[in-house]
Amino acid sequence: MSALNGRRIPQSRPPQAGPAESRPTQAPAASRVTSTVRAGLGTDSPHRSVMPPIHLSSNYFFDAPGVHGKYDYTRTGNPTRDLAAGAIAELEGGCGAAVTSSGMSAIAVLTRFLSAGDLLIAPRDCYGGSHRLFTAEAARGSYDVRFFNPWEEGSFDLARALRPRMIWLETPSNPLLRITDIAAWARLATEIGAICVADNTFLSPVNQRPLELGADLVVHSTTKFLNGHSDVVGGAVIADDEGLLEEVAWWTNAMGVSGAPFDAYLTLRGMRTLHARSRVHEENALRVVDALVRSEAVAEVNHPSLPGHPGHEIAARQQSGWGSLISFELRGGRPAVDAFVDGIRHFALAESLGGVESLVSHPWTMTHASMEAPARVEAGIGQGLLRLSVGIEAADDLVADLERALERAEVLAAVARDPHTACPRAAIEVA
Ligand SMILES: Cc1ncc(COP(=O)(O)O)c(C=O)c1O
C-alpha cells in the first residue's frame, strides 16, 4: 500500500491527543468535549500561561551541526500546529493528523496515494473543487477517475468490477445532502484492497466519525466547522493507522502544504467551542427546515432529518447529529433564486459553510460553477437550487427573515412567469 517505498519520513508526528496539563501529572480521564476545550492548557512551562502560546518562528536552534530538538523548521514541524493536529485527531478518533494549508491541499496530499493507472472513484456530487482537481489530474494522466452515485443500487457491484485503488466518500454530499453508508463502503474497500477516504467537512467529528465506521482516512476543510468563524482557510487529514499517517505527513512536508502556525492557533481556538456551537447550529437548522417544508415557494427540501429523505435511516444510524447544511429547490427556478437572495438579510450570499454566521449560496453559479454544465445537471444540481449553512444567530430572526424572502421569491417568480395573471398588489408590496 505504501507510496513511499521504504523512504523514511523526516516529519515529527503530532503529539498524543488529550489534556496536556503540567499539573496534576495524572489527569483524570476526560471526554472528547473536555479534551478539546482544554487542549494544550498548561503546556507553557516558561511563563505558565493557561492558554498555550503561539509559536510563529519558522526555525529552531540546533545544539550542534545536525543536532536539534523536536523541531527544526516549521514546514516540517511546529508546536502550535501539533497541538491543533492532536486535538483534531482526538476528535476524529484517529492516531494522528496532518494539518494543511487548505482543505484542497489536504485532498491533494491524499491523491499522492494514486499513481498512473490507479482508479479513484468519487461521488458525482462531491465538492466542486475536489471534482475539478480529480478531473484535471485524470486528464493529465496522473490517475484515472470515475464519478458514481454511491447511494444507488448496483454501485457496490460496479465498484467490485472496477477495482479502484481509492474510494472517495463525502456524506452528506455537497450540495444535495445525499447520504452514503460509510460502514458498507469501508467493508467493500477492505474486501477489494482499496483505500477508503471520507470527507467529513459537512458534519464535523461532533456529528460523524468515519474512522469508527471503518474508513482509512478522514479529510477536512477546517475552514468550515472546525475553525467555525470564517476567518481561516485550512485543512486536515486524520488517520487511524501509523503507516498511513506517516505517508500523509511525509507528503504534507514534501509538497510544502503544512498549515501556518497562526491559522493552526485560530483553528484550535475555534475547536474549543465546536461542541457548544454544534448544538445551536443544529437547533437552528431544524427550525429552518421546518419553515422551508411549510413554504409554498419551495419544491423540495434536502436535509437528512426529514423522514422522507432517502438517506434518513442511514443518517440516523451513522450520524450523531443531523447537521446544519440544508439545500432546497425553489419552485420559481432562477428568477425566484434571484428574488430570494436579493431579499434575504440574515443569510450572507457567500461561499463556504460551517461558520457562526448564516450563509446562502447558489451552487450552480458559485460552489459548483467549476463543474461543466452537463456534469452539474447529471449530479442533480439545477439553477433553482440554493444551499444554506445555518449559523448560531437567534432562530426566530433566521426564520422570520427566511419566510419574508421566500414570500418575495414566490411572488416575483410568479410575475416573471406571467405578468398578467400574477397578483399585482402582492408584487408591489414585496418588491
Ligand atoms: C466538502 C468540502 N471539502 C473540501 C473543501 C475544500 O476546502 P478549502 O476551501 O478549505 O480548500 C470544501 C470547500 O468548500 C468542501 O465544502
Verbal overview:
By secondary structure, the protein is α/β, with parallel strands linked by helices. It has two domains: 240 residues, Aspartate Aminotransferase, domain 2 (3-Layer(aba) Sandwich), CATH 3.40.640; 157 residues, Aspartate Aminotransferase, domain 1 (Alpha-Beta Complex), CATH 3.90.1150. Helices cover 38% and strands 14% of the residues. The chain contains 15 helices and 14 strands. Strands 3-9-8-7-6-4-5 form a seven-stranded mixed sheet, with helices on both faces. Strands 10-11-14-13-12 form a five-stranded mixed sheet. Strands 1-2 form a two-stranded antiparallel ribbon. The radius of gyration is 23 Å and the shape is globular. Pyridoxal-5'-phosphate (PLP) binds next to α3.
Ligand species: pyridoxal-5'-phosphate
**Count of the domains:** 2
Radius of gyration: 23 Å
Helix content: 25-40%
CATH topology of the largest domain: Aspartate Aminotransferase, domain 2
Mean pLDDT: 91
Largest sheet: 7 strands, mixed
**Shape estimate:** globular
**Spatial gap, N to C terminus:** 60 Å
Secondary structure tally, helices: 15
The named CATH superfamily of the largest domain: Type I PLP-dependent aspartate aminotransferase-like (Major domain)
Poorly predicted runs: 1-25, 424-428
SS class: alpha/beta
CATH architecture of the largest domain: 3-Layer(aba) Sandwich
